[in-house]
């Protein structure tokens, strides 16, 4: 074979192994009809064995029917099913169960489509109690699985009808599986009785002691290829699959002008391509042994055995391939490969959605907070029980610890939380909400400033969405919106994926806190590589430029910035870069990724200019490292509602309920989220529910 022919053969073998329609059949053999030397039963032509007890077929029947219904030219049906070998069969890596090696864990946790050998007579035979325990363990294991799924659905507050339907499906499935297990045990007992009868006959006619004779049962999963792709379809699949896997992510990296990311992905793709298509495993499994590997058709083996080598050099080469193949086909590699493939597909879907929609400001949504007709409802908490975090006391733009001015309408932490919420709403609905919250003539939405700024800076990316609210004392707050589009999600990933990945590794490693310095160094180095490309697509570039624009204009006495989720993370970055007060709600930290932004920010900048509100059980708030200045608040959502703690409007209800001296109107949705009904200070006795229904 020439090099080109070998390359074609390798690629086509890998595609054929992936696309072929295969059926997996379960047989039981006894040691009299199973040839250990040949590693196979005595008669496998046509996909059956007359001396074995056939149990059932599984895995592949529907796919085979699908391939047979495909148009001509895509798949061909073989005249006789062709035997396909697994790595475990080739090197005979099949578990044995004896009375010494048996355990409930090994039996129950075994792979259900894995072959195994059980000793049924002789000194090493399994005892009846061990066999009964295996059956009993299987039964209780099934019950545990059903109860586990039911408990998870109850925890997630799934409706009773859905729970009942799912439980019925699980019971039906396990009854079907139990029927197969019963058939296997029934056939196994038949073979055991036959072996015992044969042993007694041998004992009567000879001096051999039957107790010295071991008999085994082989439960074998044997795979047969029924349909296979045509040559042209295999090449089409190869081309289309690699174009999709390679081009979609590369297109995104090129679209975002991330040269480093594009080159890194290209190298990883080429490595995965080589590992998948130049893997010796599918070729060896197609041949059935390492011995025929590299031999011309029709040539017989020089020696029998696993490797069948004629020379020492050939033996060394095949032995090396044998060990490499075993490493490539272990169970952990298959699990991680499936996991990585899942995330690759997920990334491709998100990237396609982001590229198709493109960057830009999405129109806001209709307000989802409703104020009662009588805005005199407040939570009354004794002054001595009020937390110091409730009042604004974060320091001004000069870095001092002075409180906000006495004339400023922004007096509470809840005010910043409210401003982060309105950044999601349609522009025409924001001003009425500001009047309700702060009072008429206190807060104003400056709609003309942002378009004027963008006209003056056409070179800046204009994908970020934010609003500017000015106040009667001459101050202004920039309100940055959080994640609402796929493109926003990709921006999140670009800024915080490195820190999040290392945080995940650190949490999974015992004593991970000991690697803080190493992780900080690694994140910084990785962030520095992407700093220039991240800057080209990141929203913080525009928000930082906008804050600098406002401060240079001299129109406002003080400027601060706030945001929720992604908007809060951008606020933290912009605040540190512009030496501006930044208040973030449920936002990722900027500590670990501070080297990924341009200009780079320091820990001292973050410490002096930032303040974060971290709801309990909010995962997003813990990404990117520990916040320098923060206040933790409770989350009273159910433990089964995994994302409710991240919602800004729930955080606002918590702040208003905890900080009872906040003289701001309670909106109607707080009660529906489980908070107590506030009291009315006008003494009319009107309930909040009635005031909300009047609207």
Keywords:
695 residues, alpha/beta, 7-stranded mixed β-sheet, 22 helices, 17 strands
Question: What topology does this entry show?
Answer:
Blueprint: H1 3-19, E1 21-30, E2 34-35, E3 40-41, E4 53-58, H2 61-69, E5 75-84, H3 87-90, E6 96-97, H4 104-108, E7 116-121, H5 128-155, H6 160-205, E8 215-229, H7 231-255, H8 259-277, H9 280-287, H10 312-328, H11 331-357, E9 377-378, H12 413-422, H13 430-438, E10 443-445, H14 449-456, E11 466-471, E12 476-480, H15 486-508, H16 516-537, H17 540-553, E13 559-564, H18 566-578, E14 581-585, H19 603-609, E15 610-615, E16 630-633, H20 648-658, H21 669-672, E17 679-680, H22 688-694
Parallel strand pairs: 6-7, 12-13, 13-14, 14-15, 15-16
Antiparallel strand pairs: 1-4, 1-8, 2-3, 5-8, 7-8, 9-17, 10-11, 11-12
Shape: elongated
Mean pLDDT: 75
Largest sheet strand order: 10-11-12-13-14-15-16
Which stretches are low in confidence, meaning pLDDT under 50 for 5 or more residues running? 33-50, 301-307, 395-403
Rounded to the nearest angstrom, the distance between the terminal CA atoms is 83 Å
Give me the number of helical elements.
22
**Helical content class:** 40-55%
Oligomer designation: single chain
Category from helices, strands and their pairing: alpha/beta
Find the count of extended strands (DSSP E, 2+ residues): 17
Biggest sheet, in brief?
A: 7 strands, mixed
Strand content: 5-15%
Radius of gyration, taken over Cα atoms and rounded to an integer in Å: 34 Å
């Amino acid at each position: 074979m020439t090099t080109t022919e070998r390359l074609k053969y390798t690629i086509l073998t890998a595609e054929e192994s992936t696309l072929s329609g295969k059926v997996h059949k379960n047989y039981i053999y006894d040691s009299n009809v199973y040839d250990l030397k040949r590693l196979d039963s005595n008669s496998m032509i046509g996909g059956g064995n007359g001396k074995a007890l056939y149990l059932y077929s599984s895995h592949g029947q529907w796919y085979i029917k699908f391939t047979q219904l495909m148009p001509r030219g895509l798949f061909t049906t073989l005249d006789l099913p062709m035997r396909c070998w697994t790595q475990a069969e080739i090197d005979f890596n099949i578990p044995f169960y004896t009375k010494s090696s048996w355990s409930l864990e090994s039996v129950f946790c075994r792979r259900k489509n894995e072959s195994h050998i059980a000793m049924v007579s002789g000194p090493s035979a399994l005892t009846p109690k061990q066999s009964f325990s295996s059956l009993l363990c299987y039964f209780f294991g099934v019950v545990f699985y059903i109860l586990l799924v039911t408990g998870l659905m109850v925890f997630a507050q799934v409706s009773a009808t859905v729970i009942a339907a799912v439980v019925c499906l699980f019971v039906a499935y396990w009854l079907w599986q139990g029927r197969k297990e019963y058939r296997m045990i029934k056939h196994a007992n038949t073979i055991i009785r036959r072996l015992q009868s044969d042993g007694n006959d041998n004992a009567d006619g000879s001096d051999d002691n039957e107790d010295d004779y071991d008999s085994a049962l082989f439960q074998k999963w044997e795979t047969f290829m029924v349909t296979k792709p045509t040559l042209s379809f295999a090449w089409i699949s190869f081309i289309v699959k690699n174009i999709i896997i390679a081009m979609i992510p590369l297109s995104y990296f090129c679209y975002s002008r991330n040269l480093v990311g594009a080159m890194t992905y290209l190298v990883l793709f080429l490595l995965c391509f080589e590992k998948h298509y130049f893997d010796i495993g599918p070729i060896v499994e197609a041949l059935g042994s390492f011995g025929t590997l590299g031999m011309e058709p029709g040539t017989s083996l020089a020696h029998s055995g696993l490797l069948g080598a004629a020379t020492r050099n050939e033996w060394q080469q095949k032995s090396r391939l044998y060990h490499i193949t075993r490493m490539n086909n272990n169970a952990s590699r298959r699990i991680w490969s499936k996991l990585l493939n899942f995330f690759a597909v997920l990334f491709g879907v998100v990237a396609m959605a982001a590229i198709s929609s493109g960057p830009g400001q999405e129109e806001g949504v209709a307000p989802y907070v409703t104020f009662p007709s009588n805005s005199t409802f407040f939570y009354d908490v004794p002054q001595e029980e009020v937390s110091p975090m409730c009042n604004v006391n974060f320091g001004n733009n000069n870095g001092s610890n002075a409180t906000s001015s006495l004339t400023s309408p922004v007096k509470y932490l809840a005010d910043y939380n409210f401003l982060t919420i309105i950044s999601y709403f349609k522009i025409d609905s924001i001003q009425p909400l500001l009047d309700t919250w702060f009072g008429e003539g206190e807060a104003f939405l400056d709609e003309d400033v942002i378009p004027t700024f963008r006209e003056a800076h056409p070179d800046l990316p204009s994908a970020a969405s934010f609003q500017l609210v000015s106040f009667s004392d001459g101050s202004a707050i920039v309100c940055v919106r959080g994640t609402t589009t796929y493109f926003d999600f990709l921006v999140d990933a670009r800024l915080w994926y490195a820190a999040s990945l290392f945080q995940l590794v650190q949490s999974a490693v015992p004593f991970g806190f000991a690697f803080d310095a190493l992780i900080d160094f690694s994140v910084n180095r990785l962030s520095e590589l992407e700093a220039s490309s991240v800057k080209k697509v990141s929203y913080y570039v525009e928000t930082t430029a906008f804050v600098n624009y406002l401060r240079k204009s001299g129109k406002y006495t003080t400027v601060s910035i706030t945001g929720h989720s992604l908007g809060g993370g951008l606020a933290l970055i912009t605040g540190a870069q512009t030496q501006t007060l930044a208040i973030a709600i449920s936002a990722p930290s900027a500590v670990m990724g501070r080297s990924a932004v341009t200009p780079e920010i320091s820990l001292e900048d973050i410490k002096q200019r930032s303040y974060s509100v971290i709801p309990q059980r909010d995962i997003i708030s813990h990404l990117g490292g520990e916040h320098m200045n923060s206040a933790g608040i409770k989350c009273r959502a159910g433990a089964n509602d995994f994302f409710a703690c991240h919602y800004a409007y729930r955080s606002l209800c918590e702040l208003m309920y905890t900080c009872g001296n906040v003289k701001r109107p309670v909106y109607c949705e707080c009660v529906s989220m489980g908070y107590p009904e506030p009291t009315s200070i006008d003494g009319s006795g009107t309930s909040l529910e009635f005031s909300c229904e009047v609207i």
